């Protein structure tokens, strides 16, 4: 299996420092990291997909080998179409590992030419999630430790009327 490129998929609603940790670490291993803004039918979604792409591009500025893409279909189809052999997922603990293992099996079944690599969240980032960021922002709490500084104004602007 050649592994010069990988896909890091997610909702990124919005991107967090936990996501950026995985992106930076993957970018040290793979020649090209595609960050895929995908649709999760289990989640309602707060930021429109175009805004998530815009924020992710801002957050990844300066990381030379990262490309941000969007896709509305199946992850397995995207990896097939782009001939990407590795999907990278960050895991924050056993709860993530359980659901991510199921998804890895299903994705591999749909596209046997791809496999999923898990990266454990770095210490101190295991508790960070987009939903936690959204909730803190909604109540006007300080989220600057949890989101990349380039996108902080965008995230705050979305909740400005909710304070
Ligand atoms: O950040 P998330 O919400 O945990 O990411 C989940 C995501 C978007 C990667 C997942 O829902 C996904 O792969 N969506 C695309 C549709 C798909 O392929 N679903 C089957 C997964 S087994």
Q: Which helices and strands, and how do they pair?
A:
Blueprint (H helix, E strand, L loop, with lengths): L4 E6 L6 H13 L2 E7 L10 H11 L6 E6 L3 H8 L3 E6 L2 H17 L4 E6 L9 H9 L13 H7 L5
Parallel strand pairs: 1-2, 1-4, 2-3, 4-5
4'-phosphopantetheine binds next to β1, α3 and α4.
Task: Tell me about this structure.
The chain contains six helices and five strands; from the N terminus they run βαβαβαβαβαα. A five-stranded parallel beta sheet has the order 3-2-1-4-5, sandwiched between helices. The chain has helices at 17-29, 49-59, 75-82, 94-110, 130-138, 152-158, and strands at 5-10, 32-38, 66-71, 86-91, 115-120. By secondary structure, the protein is of the alpha/beta class.
Q: How many runs of DSSP E, i.e. beta strands? A: 5
One letter per element, helices H and strands E, the order comes to EHEHEHEHEHH
The rough form would be described as globular
Helix amount: 25-40%
Features:
163 residues, alpha/beta, 5-stranded parallel beta sheet, 6 helices, binds 4'-phosphopantetheine
How do you describe this structure in short?
The protein is an alpha/beta fold and 163 residues long. It has helices at residues 17-29, 49-59, 75-82, 94-110, 130-138, 152-158; strands at residues 5-10, 32-38, 66-71, 86-91, 115-120.
């Amino acid at each position: 299996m050649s592994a010069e490129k990988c896909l890091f998929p997610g909702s990124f609603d919005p991107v967090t420092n936990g996501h950026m940790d995985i992106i930076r670490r993957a970018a040290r291993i793979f020649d090209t990291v595609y960050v895929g803004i995908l649709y999760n039918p289990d989640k309602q979604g707060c930021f429109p997909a175009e805004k998530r792409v815009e924020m992710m591009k801002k957050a990844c500025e300066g990381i030379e080998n990262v490309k941000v893409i969007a896709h509305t279909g199946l992850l397995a189809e995207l990896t097939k179409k782009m001939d990407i052999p590795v999907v990278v997922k960050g895991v924050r603990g056993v709860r993530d590992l359980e659901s991510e293992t199921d998804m890895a099996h299903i994705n591999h079944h749909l596209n046997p030419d791809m496999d999923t690599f898990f990266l454990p969240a770095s210490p101190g980032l295991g508790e960070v999630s987009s939903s936690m960021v959204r909730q803190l922002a909604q109540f006007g709490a300080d989220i600057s430790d949890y989101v990349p500084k380039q996108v902080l104004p965008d995230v705050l602007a979305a909740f400005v009327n909710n304070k």
